[in-house]
Amino acid sequence: MSPVVHLTEDQIQGLADSTLRGPEGMAAREHADTCEECGAELAMYGALVQRLAMLQDPMPPADFTSGVLEAVAHREHHLSQLRHTVLAAIPAAMVGLLAIFGWALSAAPTVHVDRLLEAWTVGRHVVSAAAPVLEAARLPIGLGAFIFAAAILLVLVRALRAGGAPATASS
Ligand SMILES: [Zn+2]
User: Fold this and answer.
1) For the whole model, what pTM was predicted?
2) Where are the domains of the chain?
3) Ligand 1 center from residue 92 Cα (angstroms)
4) Which residue in 10, 18, 53, 144 has a CA-CA distance of 20 to 30 Å to 160?
5) Residue 145: what pLDDT?
6) Separation of 22 CA from ligand 1 center, angstroms?
7) Residue 64 reports pLDDT greater than 70
8) Mind listing the pLDDT tens digit for each residue in 105-128?
9) Per-residue buried b or exposed e for 18-48, using 16+ beta carbons within 10 Å of the residue's own CB
10) CA–centroid distance, residue 8 to ligand 1 (Å)
């Protein structure tokens, strides 16, 4: 009586996960069907393979996909809300900037007037200091000062018109 050659562990595993095919697979299957020992081992491996297959594809939680989608949607909603806030803030910021510009432009004439008064005061001091020396030439100097002041006024009016136009257009 020849010694019984049982299936190797690899062969039993191959039978269990159906990777052992062909003549070798058929022979192994035949042996497992007739040999109690190998049959029991194959049944055990088969059960193990089944359990492994179940472990390999764990069922995701029922609300997994919806939960992920909800999180994504929530994030998207938050981002779009942020975008809307920014978009809504832009006109407000522009209005604020225009208001600041308008204020600066409306403040500009005051600055011009201040500068004019400053120049006028300095000019008067110069004129009064030079008056005794230039007594004879008072009329030409007076005329010159008048023309000078008129020129400055003209420039001032032009600056007011140029500066005032955007301010009135924005309001
Ligand atoms: Zn056997």
Assistant:
1) 0.33
2) 9-56, 64-170
3) 86
4) 144
5) 78
6) 19
7) yes
8) 666 666 667 777 777 777 777 767
9) eebeeeeeeebbebbeebeebeebbeebbee
10) 9
